[in-house]
């Protein structure tokens, strides 16, 4: 085939592919989501950590599930909601005062009934300002008589009313017979709070950003046949890898490394006298001190469990005998069992299986046979199908170690 004819043919193919992309025949993103799954990711573009709480109504009765607090660290992203609900935000200001935030309402389309995905709300919920606030309540509405409420895990922490500001009414994922899915993923960019206002706007997902790059690749396809063919193959391979479990794990590890580098830079800037870094450095140091306190607890084996441990900081050392992830609900609780506690009297619970996958890989069975140390406050188990009597809940990577 003459070169000018070959180039003209490649240009026609590129134009045809671009039209397929615009018309939605080629998927706008590679996705392995099942029909109906919805995920809301909030990316914190500011320097202050933002705490989020989600209020989920049970469709079958008057119970409510409250998930809080979900921390979205400065410069990072976090999964904040699944399948809709009421969402509220708060943060610690420069004077370490707990401040509720009123979020702006982002424009992110409509649900299947034509209602806006995000609307303003003032639905109230009872929360603790200083402790984990994940619980289930039968109170309807859920924000009444907070002074009389008691958290089972933290009975000494006062409960106060807190107003959510966004009602999330998502459109479920819709997948055609070719496996091409639309909707189902919502990304928001949250800016640094100004007073009591949190500026929130629609963001781009990583796959949407990737397709911006693909547009440039398609344009190059019309310029040189050999170069464009290699670029197309590279883009397809990159997309396939990004959608694979290995690609997702790599992104988790890169995000973790970015957070560590961010903290290192903030501490270095504060040490050099940068006044803008002082507050961030203090928050990092406070978190590090809290972690050091966890590891000063009494060192024990799971075999020695005693009800008197409840509410105390302990360091538990045992041999992992089994791991289990409950994929039937949200969050997907991870349960780690110990050889020293064959009747599962004491376990480790975590709502973040990826917290462990970042270190040992996608197959969590790699933990079996390893000696694990975990530090934290002993509490009633929220995992293990309610069989265990006590547990330590792992929420951050510095709470556990393996040998």
What labels would you give this structure?
23 strands, globular, five-stranded mixed β-barrel, 27% helix, eight-stranded mixed sheet, alpha+beta, 403 residues, disordered N terminus
Protein model, in words:
The N and C termini lie far apart (63 Å). This protein is α+β, with helices and mostly antiparallel strands. Helix 1 packs antiparallel against helix 2 and helix 4 packs across helix 5. The strands form five sheets. Strands 2, 3, 5, 6, 7, 9, 11 and 15 form an eight-stranded mixed sheet that branches. A five-stranded mixed beta barrel has the order 18-19-20-22-21. The chain has a four-stranded mixed sheet with strand order 4-1-14-16, with no helix packed on it.
Concise description?
With 403 residues, this protein is α+β, with helices and mostly antiparallel strands. Helices cover 27% and strands 30% of the residues. It has helices spanning 3-23, 206-221, 225-243, 245-271, 278-294, 354-360, and strands spanning 39-44, 50-57, 64-72, 77-82, 85-92, 98-103, 118-120, 124-128, 135-137, 159-163, 166-168, 174-175, 181-182, 185-190, 197-198, 200-202, 298-300, 313-325, 334-338, 346-350, 371-379, 390-393, 400-402.
């Amino acid at each position: 085939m003459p070169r000018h004819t070959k180039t003209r043919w490649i240009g026609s193919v590129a134009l045809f592919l671009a039209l397929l992309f615009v018309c939605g025949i080629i998927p706008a993103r590679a996705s392995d989501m099942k029909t109906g799954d919805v995920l809301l990711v909030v990316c914190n573009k500011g320097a202050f950590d933002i705490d989020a709480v989600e209020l989920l109504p049970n469709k079958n009765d008057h119970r409510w599930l409250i998930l809080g607090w979900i921390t979205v660290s400065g410069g990072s992203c976090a999964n904040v909601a699944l399948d809709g609900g009421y969402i509220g935000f708060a943060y610690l200001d420069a004077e370490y005062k707990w401040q509720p935030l009123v979020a702006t309402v982002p424009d992110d389309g409509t649900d299947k009934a034509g209602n806006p995905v995000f609307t303003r709300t003032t639905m109230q919920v009872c929360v603790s300002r200083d402790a984990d606030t994940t619980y289930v309540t039968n109170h309807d509405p859920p924000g009444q008589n907070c002074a009389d409420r008691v958290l089972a895990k933290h009975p000494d922490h006062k409960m106060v009313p807190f107003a959510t500001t966004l009602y999330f009414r998502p459109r479920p994922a819709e997948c055609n017979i070719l496996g091409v899915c639309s909707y189902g993923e919502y990304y928001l960019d949250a800016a640094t709070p100004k007073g009591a206002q949190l500026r929130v706007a629609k963001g781009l997902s990583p796959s949407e950003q990737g397709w911006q790059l693909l547009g440039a690749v398609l344009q190059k396809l019309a310029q040189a046949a050999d170069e464009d063919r290699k670029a197309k193959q590279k883009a397809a391979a990159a997309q396939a890898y990004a959608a694979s479990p290995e690609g997702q794990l790599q992104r988790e590890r890169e995000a973790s490394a970015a957070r560590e580098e961010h903290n290192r830079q903030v501490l270095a800037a504060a040490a050099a006298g940068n006044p803008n870094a002082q507050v961030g450095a203090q928050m990092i140091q406070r978190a590090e001190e809290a972690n050091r306190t966890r590891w000063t607890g009494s060192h024990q084996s799971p075999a020695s469990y005693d009800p008197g441990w409840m509410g105390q900081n302990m360091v538990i050392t045992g041999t992992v005998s089994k791991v289990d992830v409950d994929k039937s609900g949200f969050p997907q609780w991870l349960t780690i069992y110990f050889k020293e506690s064959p009747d599962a009297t004491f376990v480790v619970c975590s709502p973040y299986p990826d917290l462990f996958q970042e270190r040992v890989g996608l197959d969590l069975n790699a933990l079996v046979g390893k000696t694990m140390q975990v530090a934290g406050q002993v509490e009633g188990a929220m995992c293990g199908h309610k069989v265990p009597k006590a547990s330590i809940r792992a929420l951050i990577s510095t709470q556990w170690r393996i040998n």
